[in-house]
């Protein structure tokens, strides 16, 4: 059971989603504006935020940015269209995943569960690569002895890639393993998450050491 | 044949006509003035020659004896000059060298009229004036009797003829002088007519090419200017109606987009609450359970319809974008069929390892719609056949049903087109094939609907191997 904060301005949809997600076993609090939602977050941080991008007052993208800068709580955005800049903007603002309206509760539930899942496979101790230490049991990461605060999605991406250093993972494969999307996942999720991960672990994100791009194929960890 | 002889261009026709008329006019004028000048010249020369001959004869006749003998005739001949013949009954002056100055016609005219007669002939290649006159004896009382002596003489007219030729030449020259002038005038006239005509033609071409803002500035107040004004008015009204039509079309499309947009939030609510209903349906009374199930399935149908409407709106708005990836076609099609539980109902024949650069999600939409259609409206076996050739890949979806009626084929890609009016409720949104068409076009490919030899419906999609990102 996860503690979810649902930020949605339409009262009927808010209530409907609350009922449906509760039916899927989640504990759902709601907020009807971005300001209200951010207040709720401060008073009692949830496990995950479901955020409608179309909000009165400060808009969803801004709310997403503020949530991200305040901590590691994962965000799933509700967006009107899969193709437009809402998705791109939401991912750049730090969203972990998105669901297109009309949202199906089963789809939303599956995304929530995937985003909240932190571990990947069985822990195999500590993976140390030059300055980067990945503790697969404690699920912590440190760079030159300093802890790196990763969101659950970023952590899963790093765990997945570092499980087999040097091996190339296609975006499709990463979408299936990290986001648990079906075969039609949106590869922009991977690219955005890789960028955020690099910003946190790479000395120079424009010439990465740990998470490297293999043009035309996907990503690999190292070789360091 | 006349079509080929008569020049086709307006400019050439004007040129030929004006030059022809001008030169003919000038030639006629020159010819007629040359002719009257020539007549005057010839007449005066004739008068002068005749008077001279008469004078010569008059000077010698008093010295003649009558009846004259051979010697008198010879003297008379010598006095009048060469080319002269003097006769008296059977006598003829000797030394009749040169041009024979007498013709039968002249002699009979002289005898009949009994006075001086002239005739013009050509001899030895030159023009001559023949003068014949009887010599009349005038008695002291004034009575005139013919002496029987006749003088015939010939005078060379070459000099006059040369003068006349000169006149004709100068007339021809004058006419020729008019030629370049006429051509120049014709060209000027042609240009003043042709410039507006050419402008009109260019304007009409631009209009035809879709540039509805094309206009020609009217110049002057002639018929061509009127025509230009009329063409401009026509273009104005065309532009206005096109703009109105485009606006209506855009409004209709925006309405569909707005409507589907507005439907998303209540539909999301419905989808959420029927999810709760679905979980609780098992414990309900039969009627309530059936109602819940109806609400659930209809909500899903509505969701699909709105998703399709939004997809179509994106194509209409031009905001649909390709997200191109390298895709293993056989794998993608297998995924598509597997995700919908169709693997055991569809025969898939696709070469392994065929990699294409295309939008994976859109390929899925294309194939899922075509196969879904075949399964719903056709009969088994449903086949998906993929083949690659050159820079194209062909995906064929064929079913074993009765096929698509000929009159329906042209409309299968129309939005909300239903082949059978009675079958208004099918699980599809009525937009499936329209969306397929748009997706294929977005890839730069094409799709055709037809029937297989065996009779089943066959949809053939052709996609370029490497799609440009757009």
TrEMBL record, chain A:
The keyword Transcription applies. GO terms for molecular function: phosphorelay response regulator activity; transcription cis-regulatory region binding. One of its GO terms (biological process) is regulation of DNA-templated transcription. Residues 124-223 form the OmpR/PhoB-type domain. Pfam families: Response_reg (PF00072), Trans_reg_C (PF00486). Residues 3-116 form the Response regulatory domain. Residues 124-223 bind DNA. InterPro entries: CheY-like_superfamily (IPR011006), OmpR/PhoB-type_DNA-bd (IPR001867), Sig_transdc_resp-reg_receiver (IPR001789), WalR-like (IPR039420), WH-like_DNA-bd_sf (IPR036388). It comes from the Bacteria. Keywords: DNA-binding, Phosphoprotein, Transcription, Transcription regulation, Two-component regulatory system. This is Response regulator transcription factor.
UniProtKB/TrEMBL annotation, chain B:
Transmembrane segments: none annotated. Residues 191-243 form the HAMP domain. Residues 258-467 form the Histidine kinase domain. The keyword Transmembrane applies. It is found in: Cell membrane. It comes from Actinomadura darangshiensis. Gene3D superfamilies: 1.10.287.130, 6.10.340.10, Histidine kinase-like ATPase, C-terminal domain. This is histidine kinase. The lineage of its organism: Bacteria, Bacillati, Actinomycetota, Actinomycetes, Streptosporangiales. It comes from the Bacteria.
């Amino acid at each position: 059971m996860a503690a979810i904060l649902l930020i949605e301005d339409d009262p009927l949809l808010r209530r409907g989603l609350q009922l449906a997600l509760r039916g899927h076993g989640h504990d759902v609090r709601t907020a009807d504006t971005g300001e209200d939602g951010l207040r709720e977050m401060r008073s009692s941080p949830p496990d995950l935020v479901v955020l409608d991008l179309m909000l009165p007052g400060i808009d969803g993208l801004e709310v997403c940015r503020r949530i991200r800068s305040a901590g590691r709580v994962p965000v799933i955005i509700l967006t009107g269209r899969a193709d437009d800049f809402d998705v791109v903007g939401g991912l750049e603002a730090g969203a972990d995943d998105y669901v297109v309206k009309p949202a199906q509760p089963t789809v939303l539930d599956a995304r929530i569960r995937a985003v909240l899942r932190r571990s990947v496979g069985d822990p195999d101790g500590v993976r140390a690569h030059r300055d980067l230490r990945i503790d697969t049991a404690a699920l912590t990461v440190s760079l030159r002895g300093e802890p790196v605060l990763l969101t659950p999605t970023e952590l899963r991406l790093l765990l997945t890639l570092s499980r087999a250093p040097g091996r190339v993972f296609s975006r499709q494969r990463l979408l299936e393993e990290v986001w648990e999307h079906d075969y039609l996942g949106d590869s922009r999720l991977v690219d955005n998450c890789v960028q955020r991960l690099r910003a946190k672990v790479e000395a120079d994100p424009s010439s990465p050491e740990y998470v490297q791009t293999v043009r035309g194929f996907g990503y690999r960890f190292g070789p360091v | 044949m006349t079509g080929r002889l008569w020049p086709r261009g307006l400019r050439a026709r004007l040129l030929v006509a004006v030059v022809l008329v001008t030169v003919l006019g000038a030639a006629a004028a020159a010819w007629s003035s040359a002719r009257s000048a020539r007549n005057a010249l010839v007449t005066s020369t004739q008068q002068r020659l005749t008077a001279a001959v008469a004078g010569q004869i008059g000077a010698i006749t008093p010295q003649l004896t009558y009846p004259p003998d051979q010697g008198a005739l010879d003297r008379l001949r010598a006095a009048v000059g060469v080319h002269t013949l003097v006769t008296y009954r059977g006598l003829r002056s000797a030394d009749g060298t040169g041009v024979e100055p007498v013709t039968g016609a002249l002699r009979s005219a002289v005898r009949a009229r009994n006075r001086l007669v002239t005739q013009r002939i050509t001899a030895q290649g030159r023009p001559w004036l023949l003068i014949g006159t009887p010599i009349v004896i005038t008695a002291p009382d004034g009575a005139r009797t013919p002496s029987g002596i006749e003088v015939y003489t010939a005078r060379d007219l070459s000099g006059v003829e040369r003068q006349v030729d000169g006149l004709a030449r100068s007339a021809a020259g004058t006419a020729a002088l008019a030629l370049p002038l006429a051509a120049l005038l014709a060209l000027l006239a042609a240009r003043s007519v042709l410039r507006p005509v050419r402008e009109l033609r260019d304007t009409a071409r631009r209009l035809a090419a879709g540039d509805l803002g094309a206009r020609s500035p009217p110049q002057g107040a002639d018929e061509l200017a009127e025509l230009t004004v009329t063409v401009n008015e026509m273009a104005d009204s065309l532009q206005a109606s096109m703009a109105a039509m485009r606006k209506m079309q855009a409004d209709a499309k925006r309405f569909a987009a707005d409507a589907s947009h507005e439907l998303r939030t209540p539909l999301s609510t419905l989808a959420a609450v029927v999810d709760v209903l679905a979980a609780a349906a098992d414990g309900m009374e039969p009627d309530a359970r059936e109602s819940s199930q109806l609400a659930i399935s209809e909500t899903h149908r509505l969701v699909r319809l709105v998703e399709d409407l939004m997809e179509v709106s994106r194509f209409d708005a031009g905001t649909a974008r390709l997200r191109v990836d390298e895709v293993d076609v056989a794998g993608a099609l297998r995924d598509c069929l597997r995700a919908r539980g169709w693997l055991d109902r569809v025969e898939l024949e696709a070469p392994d390892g065929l990699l294409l650069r295309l939008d994976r999600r859109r390929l899925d939409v294309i194939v899922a719609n075509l196969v879904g259609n075949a399964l719903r409206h056709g009969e088994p076996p449903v086949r998906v056949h993929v083949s690659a050739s050159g820079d194209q890949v062909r995906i064929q979806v064929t079913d074993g049903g009765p096929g698509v009626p000929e009159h329906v084929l042209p409309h299968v890609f129309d939005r909300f087109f239903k082949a059978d009016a009675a079958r208004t409720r099918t699980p599809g949104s009525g937009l499936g094939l329209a969306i397929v068409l748009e997706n294929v076009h977005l890839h730069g490919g094409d799709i055709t609907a037809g029937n297989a030899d065996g009779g089943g419906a066959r949809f053939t999609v052709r996609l370029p191997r490497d799609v440009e990102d757009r």
